[in-house]
Amino acid sequence: MKSKPIAIGVIVALAVAGCNIYNGLVDSSEGVDAAWSDIDAMLQRRADLVPNLVSTVKGYATHEEKVFSEVSEARSRLSGARTPAEAAEADAALTGVLGRLLAIAEAYPELKANENFMRLQDELSGTENRIAVARKDYNALVKSYNAAIRRIPASLLAGPLGFEKKDYFEPPAGHDAVQVAPAVAF
């Protein structure tokens, strides 16, 4: 008769432990999703700054149509990205072309002195810094989450309950443009 209460106690303890593990994985997954949402919002902010920057530069450097169309294409790809891998690739492309756009500005002293251009450069620079911090925070949460779903005993529940590995937000392999943020010089 003593074995029945012990068995019930063990079952209850396992159920409570399972619930705690599940809830921890849910919290961790939601943290990753929230961090991704932060990155996505900052990437959108960056993409929203680009048309104003292009318009300002266009006023001074009308013969640079190729760069302007590349900026537009890269911005569209970033806006259409749905996964961290797609966003990282699109972000790398936009970073590279923005670097070329800002390099064009160096050839136009009057543009560099333009108040609107200077404000846009400041906003872009601040956004780049925020993206870098958010990327670091997101990747730390992904690392923690991915480790949690692989650790025992959570790994026994994670797969059957639909918790899958999350992707890091990293530059595409071999992409040099994302190694250095666009130069914002005055």
Topology:
Layout: H1 3-58, H2 65-80, H3 84-106, H4 109-112, H5 115-150, H6 154-158
Helix pairs in contact: 1-2, 1-3, 1-5, 2-3
How does this structure look, described?
With 186 residues, the chain is mainly α. Helix content is 75%, strand content 0%. The protein has six helices and no strands. The chain has helices at residues 3-58, 65-80, 84-106, 109-112, 115-150, 154-158. The radius of gyration is 24 Å and the shape is rod-shaped. The protein starts with a helix and ends in a 28-residue tail after the last helix.
By DSSP (H or I, 4+ residues per run), the number of helices equals 6
Q: Would you tell me the overall average pLDDT?
A: 87
Q: What's the multimeric state?
A: single chain
Radius of gyration: 24 Å
How far is the first residue's CA from the last residue's CA?
83 Å
Instruction: Briefly note the structural class of the backbone.
Output: mainly alpha
Can you tell me the number of structural domains? 1
Q: Specify the overall morphology.
A: rod-shaped
CATH topology grouping: de novo design (two linked rop proteins)
Fourth-tier CATH superfamily name: LemA-like domain
Q: Characterize the biggest β-sheet.
A: none
- Note poorly predicted spans: 176-181
For this structure, what is the CATH class? Mainly Alpha
Strand content: under 5%
The share of residues in helices is over 70%
Topology as H/E string? HHHHHH
- The CATH architecture comes to Up-down Bundle
**Strand segment tally:** 0
